[in-house]
Amino acid sequence: MSLPLILPPIILGGAGFSHQVYRNPNAAQALQVLKRALELGLRAIDTSAYYHPSEILLGEALSHPDITNLYTRDQYVLMTKVGRIAADKFDYSPTWVRSSVFRSLQRLRTDYLDVVFCHDVEFVPEDEVIEAVGVLFQMAGEGHIRHVGISGYRTDILMRLAHRVREEFSRPLDIAQNWAQLTLQNDGLAEDLDEFKKAGVSCICSSSPLAIGLLRTNGVPVGDLGDFHPAPQGLRIASKLAADYVAAKGDDLAALALRYSIRRAQSLSSPDFRVTTIMGITTIAELEDNLATARQVLPVTESQWRWVAEAGPSTDAVSSQVKKDEELSAGVKDILGPWYGYCFPSPGDGWDVATKMPVPSRI
Fold this sequence. Notes:
Blueprint: H1 3-6, E1 10-13, H2 27-39, E2 44-46, H3 54-62, H4 65-68, E3 77-82, E4 84-86, E5 89-90, H5 94-108, E6 113-118, H6 126-141, E7 145-152, H7 155-169, E8 175-179, H8 193-198, E9 203-207, H9 233-248, H10 253-267, E10 274-280, H11 284-295, H12 306-311, H13 315-336, E11 351-352, E12 357-358
Parallel strand pairs: 1-2, 1-10, 2-3, 3-6, 6-7, 7-8, 8-9, 9-10
Antiparallel strand pairs: 4-5, 11-12
């Protein structure tokens, strides 16, 4: 079955089970969240070897009797990534790509992966990405992988690589993943979708609808690894002012931002081209709040999702919510001012793409 037909509108992000965004991620947390997510009809999970220990915790949870007794492997979509090992370490070599995939299969305790992405492709030379994609295509032919994709922040690089893949392998990438550019703060991804379609890409995953937690009342998340968020201080201040404005209007910035991203993704989708939203989840409360928010804007025609069919809004309710959101969104964009549309530097001046290493300090 083609990927646009099986990829759901909402995907559970596995970064919430990592040291980057959560303090002390653990097996009990992962099992509780996964059980509740599956109960609510959420049947797609995106993670990465880089989101340590996410793969391990998800594998333990998905192999627990509480889940295996109720769900078979073909009832959910499992996606992971290769290439990025640490904040300043990448390995796109054929040997490592293969090893990483086999390690992910072992960690996730599965016989196959629905999707494998090359992770944060703008940090490495493009020729290395092309070579890694070729390895993943081979592994797809061997039955270890169903679909192959690339991920990153820089849409210009993602689009260029998508065209190169089609030219060099005479087949397109199945999917691409981009983060924080289909949001209330930056809607740039929407302008690039036609180019992905020309390259034969049939699915786009839009992750970080809150721009890695920037668009919320409490500010950016800080996990065990400290404050890694790329937003400059000016954007952080503007986001806090926007959160205060939305709160004064009786709403919540995180909820507004999530509704915006989900509704935007659905408006850009078609039967043969799917745009989905990946939500980072860390707790059951967060899961339930986010899905309640999603219900406000997802159409009831997404019949494969039980919770949508059961709790989908009426047409009048959707129209009313859209009108309110448009007014609030306009106010947020006014407050963001010059920060609206701002792109995070990726990889930034401190990174040497050729060597895949930080630029040595001159001090």
